[in-house]
Amino acid sequence: MKKMTILAILMVAAIVTFGFIQFTDDPSKDVAGPNDKVSYNPNIKIGEHHLSQTDNPNAVLYDRGQLVSHPGQGFGGADASSIQGVGTLYGFGNNLTLAYQMSDNFVIPAGVQWHIDSIKFFSYQTGSTTTSTLTGSSLRIVSGIGPDTTGSVNVYGDIVTSRMKSTYFTNIYRVTSTTLTGNTRPIMAVVDTCNVTLGPGSYWVTSGFTGSLASGPWAPPRTNADPNQLPGTARQKNPAGGWTTAMDGAVQMGLPFVIYGTVIPSVPTGTWTEQTSGLTSVLYSVSAVSDDVAWVCGAAGKVLRTTNKGVAWTNVSGTIPTAAALYNIFAWDANTCVVTGVTATNTSIYQTSNGGTTWTVANTHAGFGDDMFMTDASTAYFIGDPAGGNWDLLKSTNAGLNWGPWTTLATTNTAGTYNNAFWQQGNQVWFPNVGLSQMYYSSNMGTNWATQTITLSEITATCFNSATVGMAAGSTTSPGLLKTTDAGTTWSAITSPYTVSISGIAGASTSWWLAQQGLNISFSSNDGAAWTTQYTVAAGSFYHMQKSRSGATIWAVRSNGGISRYGTPISGVNPISTETPSSYSVSQNYPNPFNPTTKINFALPKSGLVSLKVYDITGKEVATLLNEVKNVGTYSVDFNAANLSSGIYFYKMSVNGYSEVKKMSLIK
Questions:
Q1: Rounded distance, CA 174 to CA 89, Å?
Q2: pTM score, two decimals?
Q3: SS3 for 301?
């Protein structure tokens, strides 16, 4: 058996129902008539702004750039951005010289960091030509629940420095719904440079413009082809009243912007702990969906699932036969999962779409299945040992229910590949050709394959933490550790802490973890230049390790049913009362200050999905204490901050549209 290893309004003189009016501008120029009616062609699709050569569409992190309501129906065949519904507003005042600013929010999801290199905003000055008259742009990013809210922290930029990199005509005019060919308000793109790396959390981006004309600069609201107004979460700062919601009549509007940069996986931090699987039999493979959801599989047809960070693992083996040894598993979410294993001389693929309550035998054929993965909720792939001179490569387009040929890849090898030794990232796929010192590589999901030369004859684990940087590890027969910085075009040997098989690799940024097929897990914080033993178990042998795809937790499984978890310590959630509270609330933690444990109570008058997260002073998310549905009642959450440094932290609870932020102090 093979070893198993895987982003004003018219500025203010007076507040009226259509917004704020700017002192230096004629309101009639930037406020649509209240009797305007909207006329739309229902067959027109939503349009998007045009991309300039200075934009990189492959690096879009967040796109809230909706501006086009009538593609091609504007002046001279350009696109039109029309005032919508009962709206009266061409644009929000955003003249920095007069102390106006605009802000809107974006969220970075759990499990990643964003390195932001530029942000594109949109503006116009009434009466300009298609040559931009904008002369400067400020940029500021804060973390928290608003640009002006107590507890918000400035994480980048200011309102003084101009960060404008470029400005150009977008081929969009801001118009009324009755005069689509108006040409007095050509919308310009404003691209600001930015150099900041941010972790998971909620942020607000703030802009302010300067220009050479008397009117504006103005910021048009988000617009699309819907005849109704497109609501949003934008806010406007004016010299008279501070920050207020950016309203067009009774509707809060949104600020269009696009964020460009690079996604960086979050680096797991915390401690290693043992979890209770309820099994003593071998576990071969783990699929870590998020910090909350993971699946494992093993001998005797066993499949386990957790949806609460591993506080509890539930046996969801269902009807999978106990004669099946399940060697590889991949879960798309808490419900959809595919697993493969062997019975006698056949390999079978089992599929569930209801969390393991029922399993379908999706495919059975001769051979040995090694690896499976999914690229979206519908598309799945299978890699098996060669048969008849070709690798056994299958594909499903209905979430693993039916399988057909994926691609043809000929080989003379009959040894196959190792379980859980492949890696897939975006359109890139790598898997080792055992015994021939080769790695197969595709940059286009198997349309074409290249053969990469490696110095180890047997690769048992592969991991990439970017499109170019990865590691591959060898077996006891062919021990060693390889690293590439060019997507595998060249692989170079680096120092390995083990002379036995490495059964799992996990990586994020410059941090890497190796699980030996034995008792130890080693760690490097410097891209593999040096390794230390980070964790040792008393019994069992590690068979596979994986970092969560959308999180910062690592799970490793062993030969004795053991499951090890690395990440932020799990907090206990305990019910205090089942009586119905009068309102939503989250209490001040106690004790406060604390070291290192504290309690946070919260009350729910209605059931709902409760999110309780902790952020540091920079706005980086450092812990998720709760992210699950809770019934009506009052609860207490225990938080252990043993792995955090002394300092000020903020915790935020969100449920059913309610949210609240409080501050706490950790003193060690």
A1: 10
A2: 0.62
A3: helix
